[in-house]
Amino acid sequence: MFTGLIESTGTILDITPTSGATRITIASPTLTARLNTGDSIAVSGVCLTALSIEPKAFPPRFSADLAAETIARTTLSHLRPGSTVNLELPTPAGSPLGGHVVQGHVDGTATLLALTPLNPAAPATTDWRLSLQLPHTLTQFVVPQGSITIEGISLTVAALHGTTVEIAIIPHTYANTSLHTLTPGTPLNIETDVLAKYAQRQQNQTPAFTLSEKYLLANGY
Q1: Does the predicted model carry a pTM greater than 0.85?
Q2: How far is CA 115 from the centre of its chain?
Q3: Largest Cα–Cα distance of the chain, in whole Å?
Q4: Distance between CA 190 and CA 153 in Å, rounded?
Q5: Could you confirm whether domain 8-88 is CATH 2.40.30.20?
Q6: Which residues 6+ apart lie within 8 Å of 41 measured at CB?
Q7: pLDDT reported for residue 21
Q8: Residues contacting residue 122 through CB under 8 Å, at least 6 positions apart
Q9: What whole-number distance in Å separates Cα of residue 127 and Cα of residue 118?
Q10: Can you give the three-state secondary structure of the chain, one letter per residue?
Q11: Do 8-88 and 108-196 come out as alike in CATH topology?
Q12: Exposed site from 33, 58, 71, 106, fewest CB < 10 Å?
C-alpha cells in the first residue's frame, strides 16, 4: 500500500518492447539502493515490481516489466527517455498515513487541461490550479474535497464540473514532483479513492430492505 506522498522523482532511461512484457528502466539515485529484487514501487501511481537493480551504475537504476494490462490502462508506455516520473516505496505497516490509501492500481487516464499559477509574478512561491478532463466512467468516484491520486500524488479535489476536475497545488508539490514538467494535453494516471469504489459497489449490489426484513435481520432471523 502507498499513501501518495512522493519520495523522489526518477528519470526514464529506456523503454524496450519485447516479445513478452515491455521493460522500463528508471534512474533513481535516492531510492535504488533501498530496493531488492521483487520489491513493489509506485511509478507515477502505477505499482510495479523492481527488477535488475543496479545501485552502483551511473546513474543508479532499476527496471520493471509492464504487462499488457498496464500498457493499456496507464501512461507509462507513452513516456520517452528523459521523462520525469514520481516514485514512492510502500508504506510500512503501522506507519502514519500522511496522504490517503493508494493501491497503485490505476483506474484510467485523464487529460491535463491546464496548470496555472495563481500569482504568475512569483512562480517559485505561488499556488497552482490544475484542471483535467476525467473519463465519464470515473466521475462517480470523485467528490469535491475528496481524495484523488494523480500521477501517484495524493491530492484533494477542489471542484468538480461535469467531467472537469480542479485541484489546488501547493508550491512544494509543484516543485518536487513531475507536475512542473507537464504541458496541456498530457495524459495523467488516475486512481480514484478506493473507499468510494467500495461504497459504490455495495450500493449497486445491496437491495433495499423493507421494514419487516430489517426487523428480522435485527433479531437474528
Answers
A1: yes
A2: 17
A3: 70
A4: 9
A5: yes
A6: 31, 35, 47, 48, 49, 50, 62, 64, 87, 88, 89, 90
A7: 85
A8: none
A9: 6
A10: CECCCCCEEEEEEEEECCCCCEEEEEECCCCHHHCCCCCEEEECCEEEECEEEECCCCCCEEEEEECHHHHHHCCHHHCCCCCEEEEECCCCCCCCCCCCCECCCCCEEEEEEEEEECCCCCCCCCCEEEEEECCHHHHHHCCCCCEEEECCEEEEEEEEECCEEEEEECHHHHHHCHHHHCCCCCEEEEEECHHHHHHHHHHHHCCCCCHHHHHHHHCCC
A11: yes
A12: 58
The one-letter amino acid at 193 = D
State the residue for C-alpha cell 529506456.
14
| Fold category of 108-196 in CATH | Elongation Factor Tu (Ef-tu); domain 3 (2.40.30)
pLDDT at 73: 94
Provide the pLDDT for residue 93: 73
Give me the residue spans of the domains in the chain.
Answer: 8-88, 108-196
pLDDT one digit per residue (tens) for the chain, 221 residues: 899 999 999 999 999 987 778 999 999 999 999 999 999 999 999 999 999 999 999 999 999 999 999 999 999 988 999 999 999 999 877 777 777 889 999 999 999 999 999 999 998 899 999 999 999 999 999 999 999 999 999 999 999 999 999 999 999 999 999 999 999 999 999 999 887 777 777 777 655 555 555 445 465 54
C-alpha cell at 192: 480514484
Q: Grid coordinates in use for 212?
A: 419487516
What span, in angstroms and rounded, lies between the C-alpha atoms of 44 and 86? 5
